[in-house]
Amino acid sequence: MSVYTKVPPHQLAEFLQHYSLGQLEQFAGISDGIENSNYFVTTSIR
To answer: How far is Cα 2 from Cα 46, in angstroms, rounded to an integer?
Structure first.
């Protein structure tokens, strides 16, 4: 698996507050890739 950096949900939610992307709903590491940590992120605007 190519997720090298674990991101806690609260830290990602705080990071997303700087963008107009809505609230964090869920996220999961992507197993593809060779060098970087990649995540699928789902948000919703409320």
So the answer is: 32
Q: Note if the pTM is more than 0.85.
A: no
For residue range 3-34, what is the model confidence (pLDDT) as tens digits?
A: 578 899 999 999 999 999 999 999 998 887 67
Contact 16, 24 (CB under 8 A): yes
> For residue 16, with 0-12 CB atoms within 10 Å meaning exposed, 13-18 middle and 19 or more buried, which class applies?
middle
Q: Cα separations (Å) of 33 from 19, 26, 30?
A: 25, 20, 8
Which candidate, 20, 9, 14, places its Cα nearest to that of 46? 20
15, containing H or E segment: helix 9-16
